[in-house]
Amino acid sequence: MAVTALSSLGSTFGISREILELRGQFDDLQRQLATGKRTESYSGLGTDRLPVLSLRTRLSSLEGYLSTVDQASLRLDVVQQHLERLREISSETRSDALPGDFVLSGANQTQLQISSSEHLNETIALLNFELAGRHYFSGRTSETQPVVQMDLLLNGDASHAGLKQVISERRQADLGPAGLGRLAITNTSPQISLSEDAAGHPFGFKVSGVASSLTGTTVAGPAGAPAAIDVTFSATLPQAGELITITLDLPDGTQSDITLAATATAPAGDGEFLIGADETATAANFEAALTTALQTAGARELSAASTKAASNDFFNYDSATPPQRVAGPPFDTAIALQNATTGDTVFWYVGDNGPGSARDSAIAHIDDSLNVAYGTRADEGPLRELVSSLAVLAAETFSETDPHDQVRYQELTSRVAADLNFSGAQSLEDLINELGFKQRSINEAGERHTAAQQISLDLLQTKEGINDYEVGTSLLRLQTTLQASFETTSLLTRLSLVNFL
Question: How remote is the C-alpha of 495 from its chain's centroid?
Fold first, then answer.
């Protein structure tokens, strides 16, 4: 900074005013050293005023973005930690379910079922995680704990049906009053007809197909409404070892085949029917074998499929489609499902379940034109499937004295293992990776903003800041000038005509 020089001695009477100006310059230089700023107001920046204002605005935006980045990154860190543990639980359950070992404890459950109860409790706790009043798996309703507690989910209460009750009602509807899977067998010898008990309802077996190698036997169908197949024997009897296979659709979307072999050896064994003396006796033997086979399949495959279907009805819902329950009682002859209500059924997920993606429930505005949707909800496909799979294992009980329960257990565990394999659907691994990509995008934006912030601060320093060395040098020169001015002023104040003479 240029320092004002002293006026010549001929301008003595203006010295006081110049000293005041120099004093002002001295004070300003001291302020600059103390604050590091050239001026206290934008007007003092001259032509640099507009660039400085622009830089200040940009820095303010960057600070806001960086704050959002920090919050979103922290939330995703926590969510990813919880998802990793859920993935471990899913993997452990799937691996343990594959062998299907059937060894019951005193609770009429296997070790897999007991551990599934513990894992279900842990899973619910992980999904109900809350930090600073915010539940991370509740979507937009972050103040709400999203998942009900395990006991209520499984057992319900005095006025609300839990999963166990929904499974029981569905099993009654699927098995029917005779345990034949809602199928009826009619003997109009020598013809045996197998038909569904009514058309249009979702329960029990559905006749899907039939294949036969039985000699002298006519097989027709499935046809009609309700669907039926007809097996007509003739005087030309089947030969030993020949087969007939009836394919039945199960309520969870899987299928079961009932295969009966003709035999000439009495008594006929499991999966066989005795070739009689004529077509009438053979038809009667076939009817008895088919009845037993249907009851066995009903107690095994159909019961396991019914549990899975009930689980789907209980867990799969949103704001537009409520959970489903069997319309009854009576349940064993029911012909429809009905909407469950919050007044009669436990709704396992009570967080945000409105339309749209779960990601849209939390959006981070991390740049001028970049938004990242990163919300999570406990009812997302892979999370719901994990809760559902653990819950059906925890809900069911078995008996060592029931001849069908070992197969029923293995049928159920195979379905759980398949569900937790997430074939053709989003898996927990996919969900973790998806959120990982979003976190990386957020962190990369943060790195860009940090670099831009530093560049902006450097530019701002060149516009607003000072050079300490230059200001210090100017301050020393000005101090010397002021000292000389004070001394000159002092001498001038002592001048008089007496001293001059």
Answer: 94
